[in-house]
Design goal:
about 170 residues, mainly alpha, 5 helices, binds protoporphyrin IX containing FE
Length: about 170
């Protein structure tokens, strides 16, 4: 690969790590911020918690997730890591995205049904984030070879199949 492209790797990696730190840190802290919301508290305090969690989720955590995924996707091609550990990592990233959506859903319910919706104990969403995040960190830092995984030949070779419609020659 050309030199200037290789030189971009540290920049994308730094961006990736900075963004995923904000992403995972934010997801871990949000359930604990929400846990302070109590139906019996003053309306003004409730408003402060609701606003702080909303701004944290929409202005910091979600944009950081998007940046982490975009930078990570660039790194796949820059580092040419089309290897089993990456696919295992992406499976856990999918779980992290589900946890992200779940925390967003809890935030909306707390905001739209003040005093009626009790958020789950913060440890539950906290674990839903921490388990995939630790698994991802383990996979990405250990980069296990997964040698024992074998794929059938038909998944590893072009099959020479044709599309069921005409395509331009170039
Ligand atoms: C769609 C999401 C993601 C994609 C496509 C992605 C992809 C990648 C790629 C291709 C690398 C470069 C690996 C190498 O240089 O050998 C990387 C590095 C890294 N990723 Fe991700 N990643 C994603 C999300 C995450 C998440 C959520 C975490 C942590 C919770 C994470 C943690 C890291 C770390 C710590 C590194 C640096 C590893 C090293 O340099 O040895 N990534 N990522």
């Amino acid at each position: 690969m050309v030199d200037w492209v290789v030189n971009l790797v540290p920049i994308f990696k730094a961006l990736h790590i900075a963004a995923l730190s904000l992403w995972c840190g934010g997801l871990l802290v949000l359930p604990f911020m929400l846990a302070r919301a109590d139906p019996n508290m003053l309306a003004e305090d409730y408003r402060i918690i609701r606003r702080a969690t909303h701004i944290t989720y929409t202005s910091f955590v979600t944009p950081a997730a998007v940046i982490a995924v975009i930078a990570g996707t660039w790194l796949i091609f820059l580092r040419e890591v089309f290897v089993p550990w990456l696919f295992a990592k992406l499976a856990f990233v999918a779980l992290l995205v589900v946890a992200h959506a779940w925390i967003g859903y809890i935030l909306v319910r707390v905001a739209e049904e003040p005093g009626h919706h009790k958020p789950p104990h913060p440890v539950l969403p906290g674990l839903a984030v921490a388990i995939p995040a630790v698994a991802i960190l383990f996979i990405v830092l250990a980069k296990p070879a997964f040698d024992w995984l074998t794929f059938p030949d038909w998944l590893l070779e072009p099959r020479g199949g044709q599309l069921p419609f005409d395509v331009p020659s170039r």
